[in-house]
Amino acid sequence: MTAHIRLAEITDANRDAVIAVRVHPAQERFVASVEASFRHAQARPEANPWLRAAYDGDEPVGFVMLSWNATPRPGVLGPYFLWRLLVGAGRQGRGYGTAILDEVVALLCADGATTLLTSYVPGEGCPEPFYRRYGFVPTGEVDEDGEIVLSLDLGTRP
């Protein structure tokens, strides 16, 4: 199946439906919930948080949060950093994660970005294989939380 994703702003009207999107319980140690992401974004305005719900038709199936053109500084990777990407437990394995990233990459390229960074918590079941298949490569850095930092050259994406 090819996933067709639309990224939408999060408003009072869709907030509860987006918060209800949750990963498998076994993945919760690797990715914070949507609700926790809202708190993290509010606590770090210097990271220029950009949050969007990922929809398939009228149903939210995922969530993405980036630092959008943030000035890199201690605790803020960037300028473009994929801070959070999650796909609901019942929707995984259907191409939604790739489709969400494709949409994000298109928007970043339109904004003039050349590189997208992300990070992951290492461990059994972590998202590293997904990011590596997409084209991210390790930078050799580890952030202050012990997460492995990856980089995607946006010029390599179609």
TrEMBL record:
Pfam families named among the record's database cross-references: Acetyltransf_1 (PF00583)
Q: What is the lineage of its organism?
A: Bacteria, Bacillati, Actinomycetota, Actinomycetes, Pseudonocardiales
UniProt-recorded Gene Ontology molecular function terms? acyltransferase activity, transferring groups other than amino-acyl groups
The family database entries (Gene3D superfamilies) matched by this protein are listed as: 3.40.630.30, The crystal structure of the spermine/spermidine acetyltransferase from enterococcus faecali (1.10.287.900)
Quote the SUPFAM superfamilies the UniProt record gives. Answer: Acyl-CoA N-acyltransferases (Nat)
According to UniProt, the name of this protein is Diamine N-acetyltransferase
Keywords, ordered alphabetically? Transferase
- N-acetyltransferase domain boundaries: 5-155
InterPro entries, alphabetically? Acyl_CoA_acyltransferase, GNAT_dom, Sper_AcTfrase_N
